[in-house]
């Protein structure tokens, strides 16, 4: 598939599908190798751009926890100042 960096990108991401297998299936269905590769790369790009991973969710959770803690601390300080 395409360039070496693109191959590495495919293998370094956990995806719900295998782009190489997808390209091979397209070839078996009558696509040329070039057509199959472009189709697989395009589909991979769309999925990869919009895919939310467990890691993404965990990072967001951590950010939200931090924001809540900061807000609680700020509220506690404001209460102390007002008392």
SSE topology sketch:
Layout: H1 4-12, H2 19-28, H3 33-50, H4 54-82
Helix pairs in contact: 2-3
Explain the overall architecture:
- α2 (19-28) runs antiparallel to α3.
- The protein has helices spanning 4-12, 19-28, 33-50, 54-82.
- The model is unreliable at 1-12 (pLDDT under 50).
- The relative contact order is 0.10.
- It has 83 residues and is mostly helical.
- The radius of gyration is 23 Å and the shape is rod-shaped.
Quick overview of this protein structure:
With about 80 residues, this protein is mostly helical. It contains four helices and no strands.
Based on CA atoms alone, the radius of gyration comes out at: 23 Å
**CA-based shape:** rod-shaped
Helix content: over 70%
Task: Please work out how many helical segments DSSP would assign.
Answer: 4
Low-confidence residue ranges: 1-12
Task: Provide the domain count.
Answer: 2
Q: End-to-end span in angstroms?
A: 67 Å
Oligomer: single chain
Q: Could you tell me the mean pLDDT?
A: 84
Listing every helix as H and every strand as E from the N terminus to the C terminus, the arrangement reads HHHH
Structural class: mainly alpha
**Count the strands?**
0
Which properties best describe this structure?
single chain; 83 residues; mainly alpha; 2 domains; 4 helices; rod-shaped; disordered N terminus
């Amino acid at each position: 598939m395409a360039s070496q960096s693109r191959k590495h990108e495919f293998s370094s991401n956990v995806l719900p599908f295998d782009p190489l297998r997808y390209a091979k299936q397209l070839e078996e269905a009558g696509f040329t190798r070039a057509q199959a590769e472009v189709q697989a790369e395009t589909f991979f790009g769309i999925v990869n751009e919009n895919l939310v991973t467990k890691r993404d969710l965990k990072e967001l959770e951590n950010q939200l926890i931090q924001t809540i803690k900061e807000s609680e601390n700020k509220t506690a300080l404001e209460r102390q100042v007002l008392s």
